[in-house]
Write a structure and sequence with these properties.
Length: about 150
């Protein structure tokens, strides 16, 4: 729940920032000189990229949460069997063992979105966020029936 609140607060702050930057870009455009128009266009590009990025991340998070809800209803979410240190951080050896099992499961069923979802969780536990994201994107694509990119 804390992660959702943080995400929504961050998204709201970004939207306010995009509005402020956009208004400054429009002010520059209204000046009408070639330099202010050039800067105004450049400034307006930033909020467009930011809104696109925020939209794509929101879609990703929403779809990943839908998969998690569906997998939980099926009883297929991975159990938290990882060993932790005294500060609550996952021990690397424990994460590597779980990752090896999830990787083998995914290699046995490469077309199953559930195994890709669990592999994404294992990547996340092993602190490999880029691969976790790619594995989750593959799970989302397989769930939607789309061909997943390698």
């Amino acid at each position: 729940m804390r992660a959702k609140i943080t995400y929504f607060i961050t998204a709201a702050v970004l939207v306010v920032y995009f509005v402020l930057v956009g208004s400054r870009g429009l002010m520059l455009l209204r000046q009408g000189t070639w330099i202010t128009v050039t800067f105004g266009v450049a400034v307006l590009i930033l909020p467009v990229i930011g809104v696109w990025f925020l939209w794509k991340n929101t879609q990703f998070v929403t779809r990943a949460n839908q998969l998690a809800t569906e997998l939980e209803a099926e009883g297929g979410l991975p159990e938290d069997e990882l060993e932790r240190d005294e500060y609550g951080r996952i021990l690397r050896d424990s994460a590597d063992e779980a990752f090896a099992r999830r990787k083998a499961e995914t290699e046995d069923a490469p077309g199953d979105w559930r195994s890709w979802f669990r592999l994404a969780v294992a990547y996340h536990d092993a602190r490999d966020t880029p691969r976790a994201r790619k594995a989750m994107q593959r799970a989302i694509a397989l769930h939607a029936g789309k061909p997943a990119r390698v």
